[in-house]
Protein backbone atom coordinates (compact mmCIF):
# COMPACT_ATOMS: atom_id res chain seq x y z
CA UNK A 1 0.00 0.00 0.00
CA UNK A 2 2.80 2.44 0.86
CA UNK A 3 4.61 1.80 -2.46
CA UNK A 4 1.40 2.26 -4.41
CA UNK A 5 0.60 5.48 -2.56
CA UNK A 6 4.10 6.88 -3.20
CA UNK A 7 3.79 6.09 -6.91
CA UNK A 8 0.39 7.77 -7.04
CA UNK A 9 1.77 10.91 -5.39
CA UNK A 10 4.55 11.06 -7.98
CA UNK A 11 1.98 10.77 -10.77
CA UNK A 12 0.02 13.68 -9.33
CA UNK A 13 3.16 15.76 -8.84
CA UNK A 14 4.28 15.11 -12.42
CA UNK A 15 0.83 15.94 -13.81
CA UNK A 16 0.34 12.50 -15.35
CA UNK A 17 -3.11 11.80 -16.76
CA UNK A 18 -3.57 8.89 -14.37
CA UNK A 19 -3.73 11.33 -11.50
CA UNK A 20 -5.41 14.29 -13.17
CA UNK A 21 -8.40 14.90 -15.41
CA UNK A 22 -9.70 18.05 -17.11
CA UNK A 23 -13.17 19.30 -16.36
CA UNK A 24 -15.34 21.69 -18.38
CA UNK A 25 -13.66 24.76 -16.89
CA UNK A 26 -10.26 23.51 -18.14
CA UNK A 27 -8.95 23.49 -14.57
CA UNK A 28 -7.34 20.27 -13.40
CA UNK A 29 -8.81 18.27 -10.53
CA UNK A 30 -7.29 15.34 -8.68
CA UNK A 31 -9.31 12.14 -8.64
CA UNK A 32 -8.75 10.30 -5.39
CA UNK A 33 -8.65 6.49 -5.65
CA UNK A 34 -11.72 4.89 -4.14
CA UNK A 35 -9.56 3.13 -1.52
CA UNK A 36 -8.67 6.54 -0.07
CA UNK A 37 -12.23 7.84 0.19
CA UNK A 38 -14.36 7.09 3.23
CA UNK A 39 -18.08 7.23 2.40
CA UNK A 40 -19.89 9.48 4.88
CA UNK A 41 -23.33 11.03 4.98
CA UNK A 42 -25.48 13.15 7.23
CA UNK A 43 -24.44 16.02 9.49
CA UNK A 44 -20.86 17.18 10.04
CA UNK A 45 -20.77 15.69 13.55
CA UNK A 46 -21.71 12.30 12.10
CA UNK A 47 -18.91 12.66 9.57
CA UNK A 48 -16.38 13.47 12.30
CA UNK A 49 -17.49 10.50 14.41
CA UNK A 50 -17.27 8.21 11.39
CA UNK A 51 -13.78 9.49 10.59
CA UNK A 52 -12.60 8.96 14.16
CA UNK A 53 -14.03 5.45 14.52
CA UNK A 54 -12.63 4.41 11.14
CA UNK A 55 -9.15 5.69 11.97
CA UNK A 56 -9.17 4.55 15.60
CA UNK A 57 -11.13 1.29 15.93
CA UNK A 58 -11.38 0.02 19.52
CA UNK A 59 -9.75 3.24 20.73
CA UNK A 60 -10.71 2.79 24.38
CA UNK A 61 -9.10 -0.63 24.65
CA UNK A 62 -5.84 0.48 23.04
CA UNK A 63 -5.66 3.58 25.23
CA UNK A 64 -6.05 1.43 28.34
CA UNK A 65 -3.20 -0.80 27.11
CA UNK A 66 -1.05 2.19 26.04
CA UNK A 67 -0.56 0.39 22.72
CA UNK A 68 2.49 1.93 21.02
CA UNK A 69 2.11 -0.07 17.78
CA UNK A 70 -1.54 0.95 17.53
CA UNK A 71 -0.81 4.69 17.61
CA UNK A 72 2.27 4.31 15.42
CA UNK A 73 0.06 2.97 12.63
CA UNK A 74 -2.59 5.69 12.52
CA UNK A 75 -3.28 9.39 12.92
CA UNK A 76 -5.85 11.93 11.81
CA UNK A 77 -4.22 14.44 9.43
CA UNK A 78 -5.80 17.79 8.65
CA UNK A 79 -4.81 21.13 7.17
CA UNK A 80 -6.03 23.58 9.80
CA UNK A 81 -4.98 23.89 13.42
CA UNK A 82 -8.55 24.67 14.48
CA UNK A 83 -9.63 21.32 13.02
CA UNK A 84 -6.84 19.60 14.95
CA UNK A 85 -8.04 21.20 18.19
CA UNK A 86 -11.67 20.30 17.46
CA UNK A 87 -10.85 16.63 16.79
CA UNK A 88 -8.54 16.27 19.79
CA UNK A 89 -11.00 17.97 22.15
CA UNK A 90 -13.88 15.82 20.92
CA UNK A 91 -11.94 12.57 21.39
CA UNK A 92 -10.73 13.60 24.84
CA UNK A 93 -14.25 14.56 25.92
CA UNK A 94 -15.81 11.30 24.69
CA UNK A 95 -13.15 8.73 25.57
CA UNK A 96 -12.15 10.30 28.89
CA UNK A 97 -15.62 11.27 30.04
CA UNK A 98 -15.47 10.23 33.71
CA UNK A 99 -14.36 12.64 36.47
CA UNK A 100 -10.65 12.27 37.05
CA UNK A 101 -9.92 10.73 33.65
CA UNK A 102 -8.26 13.92 32.43
CA UNK A 103 -6.04 16.48 34.12
CA UNK A 104 -5.79 20.12 33.09
CA UNK A 105 -2.47 21.95 33.41
CA UNK A 106 -2.62 25.75 33.48
CA UNK A 107 0.29 27.78 32.12
CA UNK A 108 2.03 30.68 33.86
CA UNK A 109 2.03 33.60 31.38
CA UNK A 110 3.86 36.91 31.50
CA UNK A 111 5.56 39.44 29.22
CA UNK A 112 9.28 39.77 28.50
CA UNK A 113 9.82 43.50 28.02
CA UNK A 114 10.99 46.67 29.74
CA UNK A 115 7.54 47.90 30.80
CA UNK A 116 6.97 48.75 34.41
CA UNK A 117 4.92 45.95 35.95
CA UNK A 118 1.85 48.09 36.74
CA UNK A 119 1.73 49.69 33.28
CA UNK A 120 2.27 46.33 31.63
CA UNK A 121 -0.52 44.67 33.59
CA UNK A 122 -2.92 47.48 32.73
CA UNK A 123 -2.24 47.25 28.99
CA UNK A 124 -2.03 43.46 28.71
CA UNK A 125 -4.13 41.76 31.42
CA UNK A 126 -3.36 38.18 32.29
CA UNK A 127 -6.68 37.04 30.75
CA UNK A 128 -5.49 38.35 27.39
CA UNK A 129 -2.16 36.53 27.65
CA UNK A 130 -3.88 33.29 28.67
CA UNK A 131 -6.09 33.49 25.57
CA UNK A 132 -3.19 33.56 23.11
CA UNK A 133 -3.18 30.29 21.16
CA UNK A 134 -0.57 29.57 18.47
CA UNK A 135 0.29 26.31 16.65
CA UNK A 136 3.85 26.46 18.02
CA UNK A 137 2.67 27.14 21.57
CA UNK A 138 1.06 24.79 24.09
CA UNK A 139 -2.35 26.07 25.19
CA UNK A 140 -2.94 27.86 28.47
CA UNK A 141 -5.31 25.07 29.49
CA UNK A 142 -3.58 21.83 28.49
CA UNK A 143 -5.90 18.84 28.97
CA UNK A 144 -4.18 15.44 29.02
CA UNK A 145 -4.91 11.89 30.16
CA UNK A 146 -2.95 8.72 30.80
CA UNK A 147 -2.85 6.79 27.52
CA UNK A 148 -3.34 9.93 25.42
CA UNK A 149 -0.97 10.43 22.46
CA UNK A 150 0.89 13.76 22.52
CA UNK A 151 3.27 15.59 20.20
CA UNK A 152 6.34 17.58 21.24
CA UNK A 153 6.48 21.26 20.25
CA UNK A 154 10.15 21.87 21.09
CA UNK A 155 13.53 20.18 20.71
CA UNK A 156 14.32 18.85 24.18
CA UNK A 157 16.97 16.16 23.56
CA UNK A 158 17.65 15.50 19.85
CA UNK A 159 20.11 12.68 20.59
CA UNK A 160 17.24 10.75 22.18
CA UNK A 161 14.84 11.79 19.36
CA UNK A 162 12.95 14.14 21.67
CA UNK A 163 12.47 16.70 18.91
CA UNK A 164 9.77 19.01 17.65
CA UNK A 165 7.19 16.67 16.10
CA UNK A 166 7.98 13.53 18.12
CA UNK A 167 4.84 11.63 19.14
CA UNK A 168 4.57 9.95 22.53
CA UNK A 169 2.00 8.33 24.84
CA UNK A 170 1.40 9.75 28.32
CA UNK A 171 1.95 7.19 31.08
CA UNK A 172 1.97 9.38 34.20
CA UNK A 173 0.90 12.96 34.86
CA UNK A 174 2.62 15.00 37.57
CA UNK A 175 2.51 18.70 38.41
CA UNK A 176 6.00 19.47 37.10
CA UNK A 177 6.84 16.54 34.84
CA UNK A 178 5.13 14.18 32.40
CA UNK A 179 6.13 10.54 31.98
CA UNK A 180 5.71 9.23 28.44
CA UNK A 181 6.93 6.57 26.01
CA UNK A 182 8.13 7.32 22.48
CA UNK A 183 5.81 5.98 19.77
CA UNK A 184 8.10 5.65 16.74
CA UNK A 185 11.71 5.75 15.58
CA UNK A 186 14.76 3.98 16.92
CA UNK A 187 13.78 4.93 20.48
CA UNK A 188 10.21 3.57 20.24
CA UNK A 189 9.09 2.22 23.61
CA UNK A 190 11.66 4.21 25.57
CA UNK A 191 10.32 5.97 28.67
CA UNK A 192 11.14 9.67 28.87
CA UNK A 193 10.36 12.62 31.13
CA UNK A 194 9.04 15.94 29.85
CA UNK A 195 9.41 18.95 32.18
CA UNK A 196 7.54 22.22 32.20
CA UNK A 197 9.73 24.76 30.44
CA UNK A 198 9.52 28.48 29.60
CA UNK A 199 8.54 29.05 25.98
CA UNK A 200 8.80 32.31 24.01
CA UNK A 201 6.99 31.91 20.65
CA UNK A 202 8.88 33.52 17.74
CA UNK A 203 5.76 33.81 15.54
CA UNK A 204 3.67 36.02 17.85
CA UNK A 205 2.59 39.16 15.94
CA UNK A 206 2.40 41.43 18.99
CA UNK A 207 4.45 44.41 20.27
CA UNK A 208 5.80 42.28 23.11
CA UNK A 209 7.33 38.87 23.78
CA UNK A 210 5.14 36.32 25.52
CA UNK A 211 6.74 34.11 28.18
CA UNK A 212 4.73 30.94 28.87
CA UNK A 213 5.67 28.25 31.38
CA UNK A 214 3.97 25.04 30.26
CA UNK A 215 4.61 21.48 29.13
CA UNK A 216 5.78 21.75 25.47
CA UNK A 217 3.19 19.29 24.15
CA UNK A 218 -0.28 19.07 22.63
CA UNK A 219 -2.70 16.13 22.29
CA UNK A 220 -2.00 14.21 19.08
CA UNK A 221 -4.95 12.06 18.11
CA UNK A 222 -5.05 14.54 15.21
CA UNK A 223 -2.10 16.53 13.88
CA UNK A 224 -1.54 18.86 10.96
CA UNK A 225 -0.05 17.60 7.71
CA UNK A 226 2.85 19.97 8.33
CA UNK A 227 3.65 18.21 11.63
CA UNK A 228 3.44 14.83 9.90
CA UNK A 229 6.21 15.69 7.43
CA UNK A 230 9.43 13.82 8.09
CA UNK A 231 7.80 11.21 10.29
CA UNK A 232 7.83 7.47 9.64
CA UNK A 233 4.40 5.90 9.37
CA UNK A 234 3.90 2.13 9.36
CA UNK A 235 0.37 2.41 7.96
CA UNK A 236 -1.54 -0.17 5.96
CA UNK A 237 -4.38 2.27 5.35
CA UNK A 238 -4.11 6.03 4.86
CA UNK A 239 -6.87 8.12 6.38
Account of the 3D structure:
This protein has helices at residues 2-14, 44-55, 59-64, 68-72, 81-95, 117-123, 126-130, 225-228; strands at 20-22, 28-30, 76-78, 102-106, 108-112, 141-145, 149-152, 167-173, 177-182, 191-195, 197-199, 209-214, 217-219, 222-224. It is an alpha+beta fold and 239 residues long. It has eight helices and 14 strands. Helices cover 28% and strands 26% of the residues. It has one domain. The longest helix has 15 residues, at 81-95. The model is unreliable at 235-239 (pLDDT under 50).
Topology diagram in text:
Elements: H1 2-14, E1 20-22, E2 28-30, H2 44-55, H3 59-64, H4 68-72, E3 76-78, H5 81-95, E4 102-106, E5 108-112, H6 117-123, H7 126-130, E6 141-145, E7 149-152, E8 167-173, E9 177-182, E10 191-195, E11 197-199, E12 209-214, E13 217-219, E14 222-224, H8 225-228
Parallel strand pairs: 3-14
Antiparallel strand pairs: 1-2, 4-6, 5-12, 7-8, 7-13, 8-9, 9-10, 11-12
